[in-house]
Amino acid sequence: MDAKQQISQLIDVKKEQFITAADRIWGTPETRFATTESVKPFLEILEKEGFLIEKGVANMEHSFVATYGSGNPVIGILAEYDALGNLSQVADLGEQKAEKEGGNGHGCGHNLLGTGALAGAIGIKDLMEKENMTGTIKLFGCPAEESGYGKAFMARDGVFDCLDVALSWHPMDTSMAWGLSSLAVYQIYYNFKGTSAHAAAAPEQGRSALDAAELMNIGVQFLREHIIDAGRIHYAFMDAGGESANVVQPTSSLYYFIRAPKIEQAEEIYKRVNKVAEGAALMTETELEIVFDSACANYLPNQAVTTVMYENLKEFGNMNLTSEDQAYSQRYYDSLNEATKAGLITRARENNPTASEAEIKHLGTMPVSEQIAPLFFTDATSGSTDVGDVSWVCPTAQVMIGCEPQGTPPHSWQWVANGKSSVAHKGMLAAGKTIATTVYDLLINPELVAKAKAEHQATVGGKKYQSAIPADVMPK
Ligand SMILES: [Zn+2]
Predict the structure, then answer these.
(1) Cα–Cα distances in Å, from 237 out to 191, 256, 417?
(2) Burial group, residue 281, by CB count within 10 angstroms (0-12, 13-18, 19+)
(3) Regarding beta strands 165-171 and 396-401, do their DSSP bridges make them parallel or antiparallel, or are they unpaired?
(4) What is the 91 CA–ligand 1 centroid distance (Å)?
(5) Residue 283 above 90 pLDDT?
(6) Max CA-CA distance within the chain?
(7) 109 CA distance to ligand 1 centroid (A)?
(8) Using CA atoms, how far apart are residues 41 and 115, in angstroms rounded to an integer?
(9) Which domains does the chain have, with CATH numbers?
(10) Distance 38 CA to ligand 1 centre (A)
(11) pLDDT digits over 363-412, tens only?
């Protein structure tokens, strides 16, 4: 049996351990940096497996770095385990129903992401032990991917500086190697402080913080016409001053997300939004406080490593689904609207240009996609991820495994419901195998590591990574 087949088998031998961990994390959904329970299965298993663990890196209590082996190359694997707010959902149900009203839920599949990465790290470790191989494996426990960006703080503090290459994966509704970029993002709070007064009897004595927030939003609305097309500005009211309309509201708070294809473009828009906020404060005679929350960089796919990972995806990314698995997922397919269903047929046609219409119909209506999209690289973006910051520090590659119901988007109730299914578990194991076999390629092939690093240097233009998060901003 060749080494990669052995890795696959080594992961299968321990699969119950990974499935139990993934289900346990699903059952304790926690958001941002507060991943107290979600980190525990990792620490318990990694300690038992003989990894050296450093906890609480980069001022985050629930982060970790687990190391195995010694010498070069040093390969990193990124694990996430945070959930999303207000996405509680009953498992395996084909309709939206909260398990706990207003509760959290694993709507981005990070219970699978984290344990798939864990399976990858343990799979390659077991082979290295058996074959007495040199090289260092580091599994990074990264809180707050969804918002807060743990990896961006870790990158700022030099946690990834030791790496030659980093690998990760993400659940998705179809399998592919990730050749896309992602949007850089800044997250900022704009807090206004005014003076309360009776809104009818003494309005001239009041200075409305709510007016300031509204004027800021109007200013930004006009600004949108004068930024780059690909720029995105979103906001939420965190505080609208209170519930009494007869009081001049003394406080208000807005939470802004500013996105752009490149980090320097996001920085430029951020500075202009600050001016709009200052203008609103000036107009209303209120005080403005700008609180920097977090930021992350755009993602730079490393083509050399992504291409190798794609080959491993084709061989080890197969989930080997049964007809029962497809039948189980029919409930999620049935929840899709007609336009989404039509889009799946189009995608199947694009991904399989030589297939017959009957085959395309079959592929496009399967509740779980068993396709692997062709590999391509593009500057096109999709959302934001703090894997972006890692990709500026060292060559980085990731794959998507199609273990979520076809046509359903991330951050949906369907993903939460599917999170403990046999399909989800199979996807997680396929991800572990794809990661571990790619690490194997990197361990035995120094030319591949050298090629990846040369490409990375060319991509970043020899520039050293500079975090967009100011030095005095702490994860919170
Ligand atoms: Zn995610």
Answers:
(1) 10, 9, 29
(2) buried
(3) parallel
(4) 19
(5) yes
(6) 86
(7) 6
(8) 9
(9) 3-181+298-460 (3.40.630.10), 184-296 (3.30.70.360)
(10) 15
(11) 999 999 989 999 999 988 878 999 999 999 999 999 999 999 999 999 99
Q: How far away, in angstroms, is 412 Cα from ligand 1 center?
A: 11
pTM value is 0.95
Distance 191 CA to ligand 1 centre (A): 29
Q: Are 162 and 444 in contact (CB under 8 A)?
A: no
For 374, which DSSP code? P
Q: How far is the CA of 105 from the centre of ligand 1 (A)?
A: 12
Question: Which pLDDT score is estimated for 403?
Answer: 98
pLDDT at 203 (0 to 100):
96
For residue 475, give both structure tokens: 């994860």
Mean pLDDT of 218-228: 98
pLDDT class of 463 with cuts at 50, 70, 90: confident
94 burial via Cβ count (<10 Å: 0-12, 13-18, 19+): middle
Confidence band for 297, pLDDT divided at 50, 70 and 90: very high
Span from the CA of 240 to the centroid of ligand 1 (angstroms): 30
Tokens of 384: 């934001």
pLDDT band at 326 (very low <50, low <70, confident <90, very high): very high
Question: Quick check: 4 pLDDT over 80?
Answer: yes
Distance (Å) from CA 80 to ligand 1 centroid: 8
3-class DSSP assignment, residue 106: coil
Separation of 208 CA from ligand 1 center, angstroms?
Answer: 38
294 phi and psi angles, rounded to 5 deg: -165, 175
* Token pair listed for 108: 């981005």
- With tokens 């001022």, the residue in question is 59
Tokens of 209: 């913080």
For residue 69, the CA-to-ligand 1 centroid distance in Å is 29
**CA-to-CA dists, residue 173 to 103, 109, 222, 309, 392, angstroms:** 24, 11, 37, 18, 27
Q: Which residues surround ligand 1, an ion (CB under 5 A)?
A: 108
